[in-house]
Structure formats: structure tokens, C-alpha cells
Amino acid sequence: MASSPLTVPAPARPGRPARVVALVSGSGTNLQALLDAIAEQGAAAYGAEIVAVGADRDGIAGLERAERAGLPVYVCRVKDHADRAAWDLALTEATAAYEPDLVVSAGFMKILGKEFLARFGGRTVNTHPALLPSFPGAHGVRDALAYGAKVTGCTVHFVDDGVDTGPVIAQGVVEVRDEDDESALHERIKEVERSLLVDVVGRLARNGYRTEGRKVVIP
Predict the structure, then answer these.
(1) How far apart, in whole angstroms, are the C-alpha atoms of residue 182 and residue 142?
(2) Which residues are annotated as a binding site?
(3) Are 141 and 182 in contact (CB under 8 A)?
């Protein structure tokens, strides 16, 4: 069933960029792309600033990138909570403390639960290394190669309660070459993915957006 239209204006903070919390699980290259764009353009011109970085585990490069940038960080590990519901609630509360206008899953490898989506649904952005709805899940690059796809790419989408099923915001196309293995193809996809994510987050922050069923419209 199509959802009712949802309009999300640009943040009502005159003269201030949108507040973004980024979630990471690994190397943080998407996070770094956002940090670099904001540093190069300035937060006011880009339209957003990263106010905190959260993670589901310690000792990862993504957190080191955040700390080098002088950003506050927080870690919510699943094993520190009684169950996934308790973890989801803790992650929600830790994220909410920074009052984000947008949440960006920048390589965050945990499925967000109902508490998180109740609070941040419709404004949590994720990337996926395939052209959704084709090849969802953890092995999008491998699956595209195995299927014999001639083109693949990446998708920036909003997170919902499914696995890579949320409304598509933007997509980038990458050609599959005959000599490609999973690693080579994934590296080329990541290059497009980083650029696309930077563009999308900036436009969402500057312009606001609305969703009409599965269609996302950025003015």
C-alpha cells in the first residue's frame, strides 16, 4: 500500500546547516567523503554539518576519522544489551541526544529496529552497492556478477523496516567489465557511491524533500 505523502522541509534553523549524525561500522570512507565535502565547501554552503558519529563496535577506522575531525563519537554494541530491541532503543536514545535532522548510515552494518525507525524513519539515508530493487542484501556486488549483469551501480535510499527496500532517492550506474572480479567492481562502485551520497545529503539538507508513495522528490 502506498504511504501518504510526507513533506520534510529544509531544517528550520535560519543561517544554520542541517544537523547530521553518521553511523559507521568499518573504514568510514563514506563518512570521510562527507567530511571532505563539508570542509571544502563550508557547512553553510553545503547545507549540513556532521554533529556526531555513532558505531556498533570499537576500534574501527570510521571512529578514528571522526575523532581526527574533532567530532563526538558513541558506540552501541549489541553484546552490551539484553537483546536486539534493547540495543535498538539504546542506539535511538544515543542518536537522539544530538538532535539530528538527518541520519546517514555510512557503512553501518546493523539492521535498524522499530524504535529507531519510529524516531528517525523518513530521514535516515543509506547506500547500497547495486541498482535496487535488483540484488538487495549483503552481497549485492557478488550477486550482480553471478547473474551476469552488464551494468550495476549504487543506490542511495531511505531506510525502512525491510532489507534495502526503502524509497530510492538517487542511483548511479557502473558498467560491469569482462575482467571484473568482485573486488575490482566494488571499488569502482564505491567511487560513484561516495560522490552520489555527498550530492544527495547536501540536496536533502538544503532543499528539503517530500515522498509520494515510493517516489522521493527534492525541489
Answers:
(1) 6
(2) 28-30, 84, 109-112, 126
(3) yes
